[in-house]
Specification:
single chain; alpha/beta; Spore Coat Polysaccharide Biosynthesis Protein SpsA, Chain A; seven-stranded mixed β-sheet; two-stranded antiparallel sheet; 13 helices; 9 strands; 46% helix; Hexosyltransferase; transmembrane; transferase; DUF4094; membrane
């Protein structure tokens, strides 16, 4: 019996035709891709990308905010600096004009009062004013020849040394004195002879007298500011010991300030009782009895800046004078925009106080005894105080300001 061959079912497509159809589809696909989907040139693509980047940078520039802000701040600082320079220039111009006005007023007042002092026209005085660091006026009287000599023999340079101090350090030191009630009398001739010998006086158009000290101080500042273009003007009594190097260093710290009033600030009682020392006739202006004065520098020594000295000179006719000179000066500044500087190195006590500080390497700028309003028995003791409290005679020449 023979076996029959199995019959394969068919689905209508021969495997051979399927294979041929696949091959044909493949080649057709390759043809279509090559014909319609060309790959872009790599070089062109890079160029287009580069153009896009340039356009992007042009449309959206990169801004360095930090750099721009720093530049803006620098511009502001530059403008502030320029404005400050302009203001300082204007201040100096105004100050110069005020000094010229003060000199003209002082010259006119001298002529009107028939002063025995020889005065030059204000314009000529101003033209010849030398620029200096500070002017120190030592307030003295006709009867104080021995006090002046005690100062000349200790802390105040003499002769060529005094001239050298003016030229090299810009420091002017003068004994300040007026004239007697009878000009040309014995007292005036004695001072004239002393001036010929020492050449260290500043003579004022002022009649000497203890109770005229406020007026004398006022005239001193007016005269000095018209004669010297100084940064500071100092008033000191003729029974006070001074270390010039320390005074210069003290003032140099405040050189950039326009209106400063430097001294040992105090506030003592207003004395209403007649007959006592430092009696204040106008005590009622300071309130109830027993009140104290406003804060002001003690009269033994104080310094004021150029603007304040100019202010005194310009307004001299209308500045009120109280009985005590230091109170008068303080009252002239009380309503002004003035910096009060309380510097205790300007009021050290005499040995042992100033001696201990000198030994510690910190000499005092000025020394005196509060109980005597100056150095007690200054004629006899000035040399001792100088030896024990002085900074050394060469200190001023080695101090830079």
């Amino acid at each position: 019996m023979g076996l029959a061959r199995p019959h394969k079912p068919t689905n209508g497509f021969s495997p051979r035709w399927v294979f041929l159809f696949c091959i044909a589809s493949f080649f057709l696909g390759v043809f279509v891709v090559d014909r319609f989907w060309a790959v872009p040139d790599p070089v062109e693509t890079d160029e287009e990308a580069s153009v896009d980047k340039v356009q992007s940078k042009t449309s959206h520039p990169i801004v360095n905010c930090e750099k721009k802000e720093a530049s803006f701040q620098a511009d502001i600082l530059s403008q502030v600096s320029q404005t400050h320079d302009v203001i300082m220039t204007l201040d100096k111009t105004i100050s110069s004009l005020e000094v010229q006005l003060a000199a003209a007023r002082a010259s006119k007042a001298d002529n009107d009062e028939g002063s025995p002092m020889v005065t030059e026209p204000g314009a000529k005085i101003l033209k010849e004013r030398p620029k200096v660091f500070f002017v120190m006026g030592i307030i003295t009287a006709f009867s104080s020849r021995k006090r002046r000599d005690s100062i000349r023999e200790t802390w105040m340079p003499q002769g060529e040394e005094l001239r050298k101090l003016e030229v090299e350090k810009g420091i002017i030191i003068r004994f300040v004195i007026g004239h007697s009630a009878t000009p040309g009398g014995v007292l005036d001739r004695a001072v004239d002879a002393e001036e010929v010998q020492h050449k260290d006086f500043l003579k004022l158009n002022h009649i000497e007298g203890y109770h005229e000290l406020s007026s004398k101080t006022q005239i001193y500042f007016s005269t000095a500011v018209a004669k010297w273009d100084a940064d500071f003007f100092i008033k000191v009594d003729d029974d006070v010991h001074i270390n010039l190097g320390m005074v210069g260093s003290t003032l140099a710290r405040h050189r950039s300030k326009p209106r400063v009033y430097i001294g040992c600030m105090k506030s003592g009682p207003v004395l209403a009782q007649k007959g006592v020392k430092y009696h204040e006739p106008e005590y009622w202006k300071f309130g109830e009895e027993g009140n104290k004065y406003f804060r002001h520098a003690t009269g033994q020594i104080y310094a004021i800046s150029k603007d304040l000295a100019t202010y005194i000179s310009v307004n001299r006719p209308i500045l009120h004078k109280f009985a005590n000179e230091d109170v008068s000066l303080g009252s002239w500044f009380i309503g002004l925009d003035v910096e009060h500087i309380d510097d205790r190195s300007l009021c050290c006590g005499t040995p042992l106080d100033c001696e201990w500080k000198a030994q510690a390497g910190n000499p005092c700028a000025a020394s005196f005894d509060w109980s005597c309003s100056g150095i007690c028995k200054s004629v006899e003791r000035m040399e001792e105080v100088h030896q024990r409290c002085g900074e050394g005679d060469e200190a001023i020449w080695h101090t830079s300001f």
